[in-house]
Every structure is written in C-alpha cells, then in structure tokens.
Amino acid sequence: MDFAFDARTEELRGQLTEFMDSHIYPSEPIFEEQLEKRENPWEQPPIIDDLKQEARSRGLWNLFLPGEHGGGLTNLQYAPLAELTGRSPELAPAALNCAAPDTGNMEVLTMFGTPAQKEQWLQPLLEGEIRSAFCMTEPDVASSDASNISTRIERDGNEYVINGRKWWSSGAMSPRCKIFIVMGKTDPSSHRHRQQSMILVPRDAPGVNIKRGMHVFGYTDGSHGGHAEIEFTDVRVPVQNIISGEGDGFAIAQARLGPGRIHHAMRLIGMSERALEAMCRRVTSRVAFGKSIAEQGVVQEWIADSRIKIEQLRLLVLKTAWLMDTVGNKGAHTEIQAIKVAAPSVATWIIDRAIQAHGGGGVSQDFPVAALYAHARTLHLADGPDEVHKRSLAHRELRKYETR
Amino acid sequence: MDFAFDARTEELRGQLTEFMDSHIYPSEPIFEEQLEKRENPWEQPPIIDDLKQEARSRGLWNLFLPGEHGGGLTNLQYAPLAELTGRSPELAPAALNCAAPDTGNMEVLTMFGTPAQKEQWLQPLLEGEIRSAFCMTEPDVASSDASNISTRIERDGNEYVINGRKWWSSGAMSPRCKIFIVMGKTDPSSHRHRQQSMILVPRDAPGVNIKRGMHVFGYTDGSHGGHAEIEFTDVRVPVQNIISGEGDGFAIAQARLGPGRIHHAMRLIGMSERALEAMCRRVTSRVAFGKSIAEQGVVQEWIADSRIKIEQLRLLVLKTAWLMDTVGNKGAHTEIQAIKVAAPSVATWIIDRAIQAHGGGGVSQDFPVAALYAHARTLHLADGPDEVHKRSLAHRELRKYETR
Amino acid sequence: MDFAFDARTEELRGQLTEFMDSHIYPSEPIFEEQLEKRENPWEQPPIIDDLKQEARSRGLWNLFLPGEHGGGLTNLQYAPLAELTGRSPELAPAALNCAAPDTGNMEVLTMFGTPAQKEQWLQPLLEGEIRSAFCMTEPDVASSDASNISTRIERDGNEYVINGRKWWSSGAMSPRCKIFIVMGKTDPSSHRHRQQSMILVPRDAPGVNIKRGMHVFGYTDGSHGGHAEIEFTDVRVPVQNIISGEGDGFAIAQARLGPGRIHHAMRLIGMSERALEAMCRRVTSRVAFGKSIAEQGVVQEWIADSRIKIEQLRLLVLKTAWLMDTVGNKGAHTEIQAIKVAAPSVATWIIDRAIQAHGGGGVSQDFPVAALYAHARTLHLADGPDEVHKRSLAHRELRKYETR
Amino acid sequence: MDFAFDARTEELRGQLTEFMDSHIYPSEPIFEEQLEKRENPWEQPPIIDDLKQEARSRGLWNLFLPGEHGGGLTNLQYAPLAELTGRSPELAPAALNCAAPDTGNMEVLTMFGTPAQKEQWLQPLLEGEIRSAFCMTEPDVASSDASNISTRIERDGNEYVINGRKWWSSGAMSPRCKIFIVMGKTDPSSHRHRQQSMILVPRDAPGVNIKRGMHVFGYTDGSHGGHAEIEFTDVRVPVQNIISGEGDGFAIAQARLGPGRIHHAMRLIGMSERALEAMCRRVTSRVAFGKSIAEQGVVQEWIADSRIKIEQLRLLVLKTAWLMDTVGNKGAHTEIQAIKVAAPSVATWIIDRAIQAHGGGGVSQDFPVAALYAHARTLHLADGPDEVHKRSLAHRELRKYETR
C-alpha cells in the first residue's frame, strides 16, 4: 500500500498546476466579460480557444483518454488531473479537451467505433474541432431505469429511422456541436438489457428539432452549449451509423459510465477545494462584531469538516480508479456507485457552507460558489438519482448474508 | 390555548384560497410566457397588473398593514394569508400589494413618516402605483453587524448629502421603483445604536447610479425589479427627507424587522407546502424499476419528514405573531430570531428533497422547485446570516443561568 | 387562536413547579444513594413512597386521568404538567402516580374494564398501592406490525389459556407489580384487526415465568421494575379477565396509544429542557484555552438549535393534545404520528449535544444526561420504530393527491 | 499509488481472521456467561486468559508494538489488524495483548523508559502478566486543554510527592492493574508546554485511593478494569520513577497519541463493520407488513450509506498510518486530527442505525450494538472532544491563506 502519486502523475500535476496558475485563473474574469458580450447565448467565449491552443502546446491535451490517441494515462494517473481541472470547471476541462460529454463520447468511439466512424467523428473531436452530445435522458420517463427509455430506432432498408424526445443533452445547443450519440430502442421485444442501441445522428440531420435549452437553477450553461431538449421526428441515418451493433446500447452505456464517474467525482473534489479556499479567503478578510469571521467557532467547524470530508472522499475516488485499472470496471462496481453518491454529497455540503460564509455575495455572480453549487447539485441526479445507486449498493451488501 | 383560526381569518383564508385557485395558479404559465417575451428584463409582466386589479376588487389588498390604511389585521390574522401567498411567490404577494420590500417600507412610512412623506410616497405605494427599495446592505462590509454600515449621510445646510455603495437593494432595477429608503451614518461619533439614520432618496436623484442587478443562483429576479447594486455619489435631498430623525435608523430597522420576519417565514411555509405538493404529484406519476416512485421508502421518509417539519414550524411562526400582537416585538425577540433561522432551514430542506424527487426536471425551469430553492436559500442570509441570530439567541439562553 | 395556558393549567403548573423545586430535585441525590444501597435490584428506593405521599397531599395525583377518578383535566391541560415531570423522569412521574405503563393501563381499565375488574385492579392502581405491566411486544417477531403478535389466548371452558413469550414488559420485574395486561391472539382466522384480545393476568398466576430484565444501554431501569422478558406457559385465568371482549385487542391498543404518546412526547420535552439547562450550566462553569466553553461558537449553535427545536416541538404536541380534546384521537392521527417521530428526534439530538458539552462527565453517572439519552433513545423504537409511523404518515399525505 | 496490502499484512490478516472465526466469536457467549457469574465486578472473565494463551501460541501477540519487542510491524501493517480486533472489542484486543491503555503505556515505556523501568514494568506488560492505567484526565477541569491539568508532582529530596484527582483512568479498577502513568505539573511557572511531567505510580502506593468506577451510559466496563476515579494524597515515589525527565509530559503525551488514534480509529471501523453485519443479518431475518425489513427502502439507504462511509474512513486512516510511517507523526498531524473526529462520527452513525434496525432488541444486551454504541460514543470525547480538534485543524487550514 502506497499513498504517493507516481512520478508521471507528479510531473503532470506540476505542469497542470502551473498552467492553471498562469493561464486558467487569470482567464476567469476575461471569460465572464466575454460571456456578457457575446451575441449568441450558446456560443463559447473566444478565450476558450486561446486556452485550448496553449494547453495543447504544453501537451495537456486529451489526457483523459487511455491509449495512443490520448494521454496514455491510467485512470489513477488521470484522476488527480481531473481534480485540478475541477477547480475551474468552466474553463479548464474545455481547455484540455477533457470536457464532458465529449470525453465519454470519444471513449465510446475509441472502444466501439468503426474505422469510418472514427475518421469522421472521433478525429475532429480529438482535435477539438467539433463538440458532441449524448442523448439519453427523456422527459417523459424516469430515465434512471434504462428500460424506460422509449425513443425508437427502427430499421427501414439501409437506414435507421429515429423518433423520440430527449432532454438534458448537454452541449447540443452549441453551434460547434456536430454529432449526437442517441440511445433508443431497436427491439422492444428483446431481453431487458438488449432492447437498446446507440446510434450516431448528425445535429443537422432533417427531423432533428433542437427545441430549447434547459436551465439549471437560473443558469443556462450557455458557454458550453447548454442542455438541450431535442425532438427526433422520422430522422433517417444510414445503417452504418449504429455503434457496435443492435442491442448493444445498454452495454455501451455501462462502459461509458465508469471513467465518467471518476472524472465527475474528481472534478467535484476540485470544486470542493476551490469552494473551501474561497471560504477561507472570505472569512479571513471580513470582520463582524469586533472579530474576524474566521475566528467564529462555527465557521471553523465548517472548515474542519470540509477538510475531513474531502480527504476521505479523494482517497475513495483514487482507490476506485486503481480498482478500475487493476480489476476492471466490474470489480469496481461497488466503489463506482459509492463515489457517484459520495462526491456530490461532499461537494454540495462544502459549497453550501462556503456560500453561507460569503454572506449575500455567496449566492451572486461575484463569487464562484453559487455556480459551483448549481453544477454540483445536478450531479445528485445526473447518471441516475443517488437513491437508485444506493439501493443497488445495498442489495449487493445484503447479498453477502443471504447465502449464509 | 386554542389552535383554531378566528372567524375573520377563516373567512379571508377562504377568499384568498379561492383567488389563488381561480386566478393565481392559472396565471403562472402566462407569467412565464410574458417573461420570455418582454423587452426590458427589469419590467414585470403585464399579468401582474391584471391580478392586482382583480385582487383589489375582491378586497384582498394591503392586508399586511394593520390599521385603517390596510387590512386592519393582527399579525396572527395576516400570517396564514402570507403563507398562502408564498405558494406562488412570484405572483401572489405582488397581486395583493403585499410584496417585500414595499411592505416593510410602507410600515416604516406609516409608523414614522411625516404627513408630507406619507402623501408623497406612502399613498402611491398603498395604491400600488409605484414600488420602492430598501438600501441597507453594503458590499464592502459584513452588514449583519449594522455598526459596520459605512454609507455617509451628512447635513449640508438644508440638505443631506449621501455617499456610499449598497447592494441587494431588491426591486431597484425596476422602472416602477420610484423611491429608496437608505440607511447610513449621520453621526459616526455617537453611540453604536445612534449613529445610523434612514432617509428617503428618489431613484432619479442626481448622483444615484444603479450599476447592475445581482444574480441569485443565475436568476435575476427581474420581474420584481431584481437586486441592485447602487452607488450614491454626492446625492442631495432636502432635510425633510429624513425619517423620524437623525440617529433613529437602528430603531427603525428593528421595528421594520419584526413583521417582515413573520411574512418571510410564513411565505417560506407556503413555498414548502407547494414543494411538498409538487413532490407528491411527481412521485405518484412516475414509475421506475417496476413501481411508482411514491412507493419507494426513501421518498416516503422525505414526505413524512417534510410534513412533520412544516407542522412544527408553522405553529412557532403563528405563536410568534401572537406574541407580537400581545406582548410586542421585544417580548417576542427570542421567537422572532428562532423563526428567522428555522424557516429557511425547513424550506430549503423540503425543497431540496422535492428537487431530488423530480429527477432532472427538478433543477430546471419546468417545475417551480429550483426557483423556490434559490429564493429560500437567500433567506439563510437576508437580514443577517443564521449564525448571527443563533449566537444572539444562545446568549439570551445562557444569561438565564449566569445570575443563578 | 390563543397560545396562553388557561387558568387551571397555570395554577397546576405553579403548584407542580413548586413541588419539583422543593421536593423532587432535592430528592434526586437521595434516590441515587438509596439505589446503591438497596438489596433487591428491582425494588424502588423508599424516597419514592415519601414523594408519593407528599404529592398526593398537595392534590398532585393521578392528574393524567380525565374524569372524576383522576385530575379531570383535558389532554391539553395535562400536557404541560407531563412536561414538568419529564425534567426528573425517574422520580416525578412515579411521585404523581402518573408513570407509564400504569397510566395507560389505568386508562384501559377506566374505559373498558368491568366493575369487577375496576374494583380489583383499577382501584389499587389509582391508590398507588400496586403497579402493573403491559405485555405486548414479543421477541420473536417485528411487533410494530401488530398482526405479527403470536401469543395465543385460547378459551377452554370458563378459562382462557395463555401461551407465548413477551419482552420489554416494563415494570414487571418489580415485586410491587401485581397485574399484567396481555395482548394475544384469540382468533387467528378472523380479520387482521379482530384477531387480537387483551386479558388480565395476575403476575403470580401459575405458568408465568419472569425470566430476566432487559437492559437499555447497560441500564436495568431497576428502580421502576425494569423491562421483563416473560414466558407464559399454559397460564389459566377466568374468562371474566378478558378486557372488553374477544377481538377488541387492536382497538384497545389504539385507544391506549393516543394519550400515551402525548405523555411520552411532553416528558421528552421536559427531558430536553433539563439537558439544555445542564448544558448551559456546564459550559458556563468550565474554561478551556483561555475562555469559557460557553463562549465557543459551536456550543452556542447547539444551545440555539436546542431552543429552536424545543419551541417548535412543544407547540406541535400541545396542538395534538388540543386536537384530541376537540376532534378526537382519530382526527389527530397525523399529528399523533408526527409527535411520535419528532419528539425522540429532538430529545436525542439535544441530549447528545449536552453530553458532548459535558466532556467525559457527560457519559457518566455524575450528570443526568447519559441516562436521559438512553431513555429517549428507546422512544425511537417503543410503540413501533419511527420508520413505520413515517411510512403511514406519508401514505396519508400521498393520498391527498391520488384522487385528483 | 497502490491500494493493496503487502504480503506480510495479508498473511497476518488471514491468520487473525482465522483466529477470530475459530476462537473469538465462539467465545463471546461464554464471556457473557462468565461476566454474569463472576464475583468481583472488576475482574475479567477467565476466557480471556485462555484466548491470550491461544493467540500468543499463534504469534498474534503484541502486534501493535514496532521493533523487536513487538510484532515489528509498521503502523500501516498493524492498522488492518486493529480493525479486525475491533469487531469484538471486548475480547480480541485483550486476547492479543493489544488493548488500550496498555498499548500506549508500553509504547511510552519502550520509547522513554529507563532500563530499570522497562524491566520492572514493561516486561510484565509485554508478557500480559499485569495491566496498567494512564491517569491524565481530571474531573475538575476541561482536560482537553492540557495546561488545565492541576495534579501536582513535587520533588522532595529523592522522592516525588503527588497530589491530585483523576478520573477515567481506564483499567485501574482491576486487581490485575499494577502500575499507573500519572500526568501532573512539576513546574507551574514554566512554559505552557514544559509544566507537565509523567511519572510511574504503583497502584498500591500509600495515598492512592481508588474511589469508584465511572459508568459509560449504564455500563461499568468492569471486565476491563472499568474507568476509575482516583485520589492521590501525598503519594510518594522515588525520583527514578519520572519518565524521561521533568517537563517532558506534554511531549510524551503527544508521542503517545499518534498510534493510539490509529488504533482507536481502526477498531471503530471494525465495530462499524460488525454493526453493519448485524444490521444486515437482522433485517434479512424479520418480516413486517408483509415483506422482509431488508426490502424497506429506508433500511437500504442506511446500509448503503454505512458502506460508503466506512470505505472512505478506512482509506483515510490507512493513509494516516502510512504518513506516520513515512513522514512521522508531525507530518501526519492534520490527518491524525481528522481521523480522531471522523472515526467516532462514522461509527456512532452506523451503530445507531443498526440499533434502529434491530427494533427493541437493539438497545438490549441480546445484540452487540448497544454496547458498541456506548463504546464508540465515548471516543467523541476521549483524547479531547471533537470540537477541540476541529478548531485546531481549521486553524491550520486558515493559516494557508493568511500569508498570501
């Protein structure tokens, strides 16, 4: 057992920290300014492109992706880098071409794509030239139960015809977004886990109607292409657009989830660290009733509890990454579910306390904490509400005792 | 001891419930549509004016105000009506001319205004013709400690000259807002509680610079005039604009707070009831893993805990109103602080669970719960963060034992 | 709506407070000494008899019982008195002949007993000459579901024959305990709510085997007759011992529960107040790191939160009592369940914080808080675990929306 | 970074697990029986001696102690073994001669003892022939602030004279306990951290008055020598009995704490695992309202949350052990404080839920959970209340930002 990062990780952490300090944090106010000024509410501020170029020139590019096309890192090596990017969640992941949902989509194409699919869509994604969306969740059903998903993908000759309604398709409002991976039913009569397929749908295909952007509290997340509601009406794509094969949708979704949860969890830790830092800075700079707010016992409890929570959570996420690297996603199932639940819980707790420590400014646009909260809060729901994962985890725990 | 509402209260509750059912709830989607379409982001949708007219014609007008100019109700009689308006916080309080901060400002003018001040400002407020703002909190200091407030109000001949910076001046972004009550220091050398004064400043006075609207978790609250940051630079008003007298600011602020806390607390209960209702409706209409979400034990716990919390909180707020009516605000000091802390705590807990029960929709614009959360969350901070009130409450509790 | 106690209540509260101050609190150390010295671990210390005599002479006797045989008080009038007795839960309820389970048993006999049953058992209970036990919970089944209860009560000629095993029969270890009310199945084939009956079984009946006393976190509660495990083997009693009639057991249990929950809840409030007082006294008398513990912000939060929780809870319990008086137990069903859950929750939270504020002494015999904790903790389980009541309460809440 | 135990650890875990299964768990009911029957309430049941002999014969002896006299293990290697012993906290640590406070005392003597002190006291402790106590906490002061400790150790010629009062001297009630390490002031005028010294005091020295055993809730912990209150009145010991030197008390106390906290924390994890196992077994074996309690959603949440909490906590404790091994106790200061706070918090939460899942049995002597709770609850207080450690941890966190 060894709790030190390996040399490659330390080297990259150093480089990334340097990049954050020299480029990311100083770009945050510029980003905010450009946000205010842009005309299309779904376009990203130009500073992001500058940061992408800089990051790429430093070799901080596609680090999330194992193998030759990416950083060639293990999950355990990438995890601490994902944490660092979480400290500036609107800029850093995009700058490194490591932003969801592109990361998951690139993983899917790397693992399951045909050579033609890779050339057409994976390559420009890896280059950061286009963005993509993942169309899974539906407004009409509890989508945490994948068998509820009702979008139809029906074969008609050499084409598939897609009909259905999706929402929370993150990034899809952006004009840069060119391709969707859509989950839907090819065979409703098949076994529960073989009904679903995934298929590539160009954003500009006839019958694709991008209806509106969903809000997260009052945010549109416009700079990252928002979260779209999309209607698919008799959308036709060639049969070659199917990913892997008919009925493989559920298995692809499972494969996509593992690394995604590590990324989300580590970014949430970075967000928690950022919030804790903001809290500490704020309370040391304000005075009420004759003493610094930092001297208030209650605030000190928040700070201590924050640190204690973060240290525990980070180790669990790193162990999960290590398990995925050593015994595979299936062997890490319990831990993957545990961090899905634990990470948003820690993050929202800490960020909420940071908001409180900021006074009125905490809920406003003047400090990062309110937006961090909204972002973290959604992760209690994204990929299925916490409760679904807890129930599944409990079933596995209980099973240990049933056979005895 | 008697827990039944009196006849007058029951009558008004019936009338208000009828009005909510027939006019307020059906207007909510119209309000949302008009919001989308309006040009000035700080103007209120026209449906509000229709609702005001209807409410007034039904005698549901200025009910918050005791005495002949208002509904003539006690705090205890008005409280359950405030709860009902909290069920639709963007429409109902405004429709009844019972929205903050106008309510508090009208109370101040009723209690402390000169006949001329009343004629010029109270009358149009009572008529619902204009709106007003209350400029207290400052960005540069922890304003929960009123002695920190640093805006200067200096006499110069027959005028007062005002210099300072305020934020969270709710309503001030609206073109309908015509008058500010500004808190500031007239005599920094005086006793801690005699340094501050309140003064009337027309919104269009030279030197008043309305800089921007503060956001609340991405929301601008634009339909109610937002929350402004305002700079006062050598703003001059006649000496007659002082309220009550120099040095009375702290006392007026105290007098303003009592009823305001009852109103906020009761509206938070209404918001909690609305969220609980939304949660119940949502979970009975969705199925996951083969059964209704309403059949999940965890969701049932949330519902039961919500009901248990609401019932306790409501009684404490009503008792506080009764104490204010019978022994005065000072005698109700402990209870006023208790509800300041307890009400947002109950409301944010319930609304957060309601969000979770909604799945992804919960954080979006499609259900009221996300906006309710943002609104309720601010009340952990407005009028001073919870922690300040708890500390003061604890001091009073501890004092019981110090002398023994 | 009126939050003031009526004159009779205020008078009795004054008398009881005076009795607590002059007799109960000063007797607590004597009680502890006598506990140490007594030979039979299940006998009560003699000071209790002295206190009973004194209380009775002051008219503070059987106040729990409505009607001519008791104090003639409403639930709402008795509730605040029950709270006061909870401040010294080992002495005060017994001194006033208002201790569980005798109170519930006397209520049952008053409501459902035959004249003969009343003469033989109710009379000496009312006189405080004997004590009684209530044998409901069984070790072998989840007894919160009354239909699980499996003790058999079978008619054989002019006798009933009882076979089964009970535990948590409080008071039954005491030599003063003379009579049991036993719940069991007379007709397993009947409707779910008509299978059970209640029957009177003298403690010295042949076949009654009092096996042992159950512990509560190491405490035996010996001074009040402990909590017995009892085996009934072919125990025979005359048919006249049935209470009300065959099949009435469930209904009697329901009738017994309502007032019992008010009593428990109000005593828990008294226990909470005692713990809060102990916490305040302790923290004002200790110094660490250069300042009084009372000056620590965290401790102040505990104190404020305690006060805020108590005030809300008390009002809900009083309202529940008022509902029982005005619309009956059935109309107060939701509230009765709410206080069943809320009261132990508030009490264990406050007492736990009081323990923490005491340092090491908090868990010891030197301060009342550890024993208060153990007592309060059991009430999350007694009369069914909280979760059962929450589920039932949630079902009622959800039902409001099902029909719409 | 590597999350696998090394080979030596795995080997010992296997051996210890085998010993737990074959000897410890089967001895638990025997232990309970012998407890009931023994005459001296402060003597340990004879089964412990049998287990010690067996454990020693298997090489499972003094594993806590680094170096040649003990198991020669690192903190990281011993930690998972301490966890296993925590699963049966009354038997396993004692059986392995790894029970507090002997462990800490043996560490102190190993590190700071003179050859004579080692021969006289360390040797028989290592042999498991005698037991020892650590007399630090005092009833009259908040002992978390070591500078409050007021016991005097005054030199008088070739002797030290000790006067003072201690409590919570665990183990000191036992007739097997032969030696105390006493903390007291040798020089009140010295620097805050140089006033205190530690000295060896035989339990049978004249002037040592062992007054009574402190209770923990209702438990006496008699089988392990209880927790004594001790009066020292003019107790004289030779000057050779001082440990290390005058003024070294504070430094020795610090050195003693580090490993002790690892041990406590890991045992708490073992206790948590035991409670979780008990909860799972109980809920799968009981039925209420027509389904197994294990199928209740709320219980599943408890189980999932328990597992999620344990996994995080364990990693933090292991990392702390690793830090102590690699950078020393000082470098692990933050983590040592974090686990001091986190471990009891996780344990009491889980055990409390396990109690609830057991129904009435949960608070009784029939299941291990009530005793586990009492034990775990004390660790929120032992070695200083959580709040003291949180404050110190927060200060260190805040210091990061003060200099920037």
TrEMBL record, chains A, B, C, D:
Keywords: FAD, Flavoprotein, Oxidoreductase. Residues 133-235 form the Acyl-CoA oxidase/dehydrogenase middle domain. Its cofactor is FAD. SUPFAM superfamilies: Acyl-CoA dehydrogenase C-terminal domain-like (SSF47203), Acyl-CoA dehydrogenase NM domain-like (SSF56645). Residues 10-129 form the Acyl-CoA dehydrogenase/oxidase N-terminal domain. Belongs to the acyl-CoA dehydrogenase family. This is Acyl-CoA dehydrogenase family protein. It comes from Fodinicola feengrottensis. The lineage of its organism: Bacteria, Bacillati, Actinomycetota, Actinomycetes, Mycobacteriales.
